[in-house]
Amino acid sequence: PCRPFHGYKRLLTSQIISHYDSINQYKTELPEYFNFASDVLDQWSQLEKGGRKPENPAFWWVNEEREEVKWSFEELGFLSRKTANVLSEACGLQRGDRVMAVLPRVPEWWLLNVACMRTGTVLIPGTSQLTAKDILYRLQASKAKCIVTSDTLAPAVESVMSDCQFLTSKLIVGKGSRAGWLDLKELL
User: Fold this and answer.
1) Structural domain tally of the chain?
2) Does some domain include residue 149?
3) Cβ–Cβ under 8 Å, residues 172 and 183
4) Helices H / strands E in the chain, number of each
5) pTM for this model (two decimals)
6) ∠91-112-52 over CA atoms, to 5°?
7) Whole domain around residue 147: which residue ranges?
8) Is residue 98 part of a domain?
9) CB-based contact 80:114 (threshold 8 Å)
10) To 5 degrees, how large is the angle CA 67–CA 73–CA 77?
11) Is 25 inside a domain boundary?
C-alpha cells in the first residue's frame, strides 16, 4: 500500500490520522502571559551574549541600492527596547493604545513591530500605497493615538489630521525632518 515517491514512503490515511491524534493528545503548559520580544528574542540575546549561541543575524535587510542592515539578536533586542521607550516616553503610549504604521518594509518597520510587542501597544500595519482617505478611515476606525510613516507619506497624514481626534503623536521615518513630527531615527 505504500509506494516510494521520490525516495519517500507515502503515509496512509490511517497513519496520518493516528499521527494527528497523537499530536492532539499532547498537552503543553501554556504560559498565562506570553510576549515574543521578552520570552523569545531576549532569551536568544542572552544565549548570544553568554557565548552559548554563535552570533548570527536575527535581522538582515538589503534594499535596492544594496545597502545592508544586519543585526544580531542582542542588537535587535537593544534597538527594539529603545523603540519601545520612544513609544512609551516620547509618544506617551500605554498598554492597549493603538499605533498605526504606514511604512514600506524598512528596518524601522520591524523595530516598531517588536517594540509594540514589548509595550503591549497594538500595531496597525498599513501599506505605503494608502491614500489620504484610506489613512483617515483607518485612523478614525482604530482610534489610533500614534502614527508612524515615511517622509513621503507625511503630507497625506497632515491633510486629514484635523479629522483625527484621537491622534496625539506622529513619528516620521526618513532622511529629513518635518515640522510637528517626531523623528524616530533622531529619538533612537
Assistant:
1) 1
2) yes
3) yes
4) 8, 9
5) 0.80
6) 125
7) 34-187
8) yes
9) yes
10) 100
11) no
